[in-house]
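<context>
A single protein, sequence plus fold
<sample>
Here is the protein in question:
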Amino acid sequence: MVRKPSPNAKPVVRFAEPPWHEHSAPWRQIDAQLPHDHLAREIHQAMAHLDLTALYDSYTGRGKAPHRPDLMLAIVLFELRRGQRQPSEWFQDTHENCALWWLGYGIHPSRSCWYEFRDRTGPYLDRLNRHVLQQAVQADLTALSGVPWMALPWQPTRHAAA
């Protein structure tokens, strides 16, 4: 007997495994070179405290296995912090910046993948970015303690959907 899936059942989404993990030689080599107070480390630590359920749930389970959204989000948060707001810049930087290779465990999403990710995360990107930055300040992971959030030059722009 073949059972039909429940109309409320969400398909299982499988994400592409990144090329590296924490024991991979290239990741460990970059890890050894990154300063302990580097922005990539701040974001990496803060990511563990984010609830990304809504982001993961936004994937349908159809088509090619997507890159893990937590890795892509970490890269985007890094880029936003550095003033890089365009997916074309994120694409370029993931091919040139070894801190992004470390943060994303070696992923190199295509340009169109970055645009799709921007569109997918638009409704909650500002909130997630602000949450990561607040956590970093609270944990004393950054020298920005006491700086008013509105004064930060890299504060993300407001999306119409937010």
